[in-house]
Write a structure and sequence with these properties.
Structural class: alpha+beta
Radius of gyration: 22 Å
Strand order of the largest sheet: 4-3-2-1-5-6
CATH topology of the largest domain: Creatine Amidinohydrolase
Order of helices and strands: HEHEEHEHEHEHHHEEEHHEEEEEEEE
Strand content: 15-25%
CATH architecture of the largest domain: Alpha-Beta Complex
Shape: globular
Low-confidence stretches: 1-5
Number of strands: 17
C-alpha cells in the first residue's frame, strides 16, 4: 500500500505507469485531454472509490500532460482528496447542473478549446450532460474515446492478478456453500444466503453485480435470480457467482440438481465442459477473439447443441463497481477481431439454455499467460452436482 495515502490498493508507481499508458494512448489519437465518466476507469487511474456514481454524474478530466481533476458531487469530495492517489477534485451542489460544472472543470484545465475525448458509449453521459457540455464549451472539439481506457486496463499487472486470485478463492468457497445448500424442499433464499455468508467469510468485499441463483424452469431465463421458490426434486439449480477483492472480481458458473440428474442434463453438462476445454486449447497470445468463440461453437456442434448456444463465449473481467464485465474491453464473440494479449483476464461462459427447462454449464475465470492460459483455482470441480 502506498505511504501517506489511506487504503490505496496499489503502490504509487503502478498508478504512475497507468497514467503514462493513458497519455501515450491520448497522444496517439491527437487528444489534448479526455473525460471519463466510468467509475471503474477512475478507480484504475487513481484508486477513487465510491458507489455514488449512479445518482449524480461525475467526470475525471485528464490532460495529455497527465494532470487530473475530478468533478463530482460535493458529498464525494473527501473520497477523492483523502482516499485516492493525487486526485484534486471540485464539487457541485445537488441543485446544480452537473454538465455546467464539468464544463467549468474543462476550462480550469485549459481544455475549453482543445480536442477532448469523451466516452459516448457509457450510460453515465446522459443527453442532458452532453448538451450542457456542447453549450458551455462550444469551442472544444469532442471526439469519441469509448473503450480506450478499458482496453488499457484489460491487460493486468501482477498486483491486479493477485487480487483476482484471492477473489477466485472466495468465489469457490461461495459456490461450494451454495451447492451444498441445494436439496428438495430448500428455498432459493436459503441457497442465496449460504452463498452470501460464505463469500464474505472467505474475504470478499461487497459485490454489485448480481448473484444469479435460479432453480427449475426459471434457470432457463437469461440473468434470472432468486425469487424464493422452493426447490423441487429433479430441479436444476443454476449458479453464476462472483467475488470481489479490492474491487477485482473472479466469477464462476456451476449447476446442481436436487436429486439425480437426467441423462439429458448430463449430456448438456458434458457439452459445456467440452466447449470450455476447446476454448482453453486455443486461448493464448495472438489468438483472434472470434476464433476463440468459434472453438466453443464447434465443440457444441459436434454434440448437437450449437443451436442452443446463443451468446459469446467470454469477455474481459476485472474491476467491479457495477458489473465485473470490462465493457469496451475484450469480447470473445463471433464478430470480434480483437487480438488476445498476455495479462488479459477473461470469464469463459460456455453454458446454454434449454428453453422452459433449465440452463446447464460451467465457467472459469482465466488468465492469459505468455504461452497459453491459467485457470484461477477455486477449489470447485467442474461437476454437475447431484444433491
Amino acid at each position: 500500500m502506498a505511504e501517506g495515502v489511506m487504503a490505496l490498493p496499489f503502490e504509487t508507481a503502478e498508478y504512475g505507469g497507468r497514467m503514462d499508458r493513458l497519455t501515450d494512448a491520448m497522444s496517439a489519437r491527437g487528444l489534448d485531454g479526455m473525460l471519463t465518466f466510468v467509475q471503474e476507469n477512475q478507480y484504475w487511474l487513481c484508486g477513487y472509490e465510491t458507489t455514488g456514481f449512479h445518482s449524480f454524474p461525475q467526470a475525471l478530466i485528464v490532460t495529455a500532460g497527465g494532470s487530473k481533476l475530478l468533478v463530482t458531487r460535493q458529498l464525494e469530495i473527501e473520497n477523492a482528496t483523502d482516499n485516492a492517489f493525487a486526485l484534486p477534485a471540485v464539487g457541485y451542489q445537488d441543485d446544480e447542473d452537473p454538465g455546467l460544472a464539468i464544463a467549468r472543470g474543462l476550462a480550469e484545465m485549459g481544455l475549453s478549446t482543445g480536442k477532448v475525448g469523451l466516452e459516448k458509449k457509457t450510460p453515465w453521459v446522459t443527453v442532458q450532460v452532453y448538451e450542457a457540455l456542447l453549450d458551455s464549451a462550444p469551442d472544444a472539439e469532442f471526439s469519441d474515446c469509448s473503450g480506450m481506457i478499458e482496453l488499457l486496463r484489460s491487460v493486468k499487472s501482477n498486483a491486479e492478478i493477485a487480487y483476482m486470485r484471492e477473489a477466485a478463492r472466495c468465489v469457490g468457497a461461495a459456490m461450494r456453500a451454495g451447492v451444498d445448500a441445494v436439496h428438495a424442499g430448500a428455498t432459493e433464499f436459503e441457497v442465496a444466503a449460504a452463498i452470501s455468508h460464505a463469500r464474505i467469510a472467505a474475504g470478499s468485499h461487497f459485490t454489485r453485480n448480481p448473484t444469479y441463483v435460479a432453480s427449475g424452469a426459471r434457470s432457463a431465463l437469461g440473468h434470472a435470480s432468486w425469487i424464493g421458490r422452493e426447490i423441487e426434486k429433479g430441479d436444476a439449480v443454476f449458479f453464476e457467482v462472483g467475488a470481489n477483492v479490492r474491487h477485482y472480481d473472479s466469477a464462476l458458473i456451476r449447476c446442481a440438481v436436487a436429486g439425480p440428474a437426467t441423462d439429458a442434463m448430463k449430456a448438456c453438462h458434458e457439452a459445456s465442459v467440452a466447449a470450455l476445454e476447446s476454448v482453453l486449447g486455443v486461448l493464448k497470445p495472438g489468438a483472434i477473439a472470434k476464433d476463440v468463440n468459434a472453438a466453443a461453437i464447434a465443440a457444441f456442434d459436434r454434440r448437437g447443441f450449437a443451436g442452443l448456444f446463443d451468446h459469446r463465449v467470454g469477455y474481459g473481467i476485472g474491476i467491479e463497481f457495477l458489473t465485473w464485465i470490462e465493457r469496451g474491453g475484450l469480447s470473445l464473440d463471433s464478430g470480434s477481431t480483437q487480438v488476445v494479449q498476455p495479462g488479459m483476464t477473461v470469464h469463459l461462459i460456455p453454458f446454454f439454455k434449454t428453453a422452459g427447462m433449465y440452463s446447464i454449464g460451467v465457467s472459469e475465470t482465466v488468465l492469459v499467460t505468455e504461452t497459453g492460459n491459467e485457470v484461477f483455482e477455486t477449489g470447485c470441480p467442474r461437476e454437475l452436482f447431484e444433491r
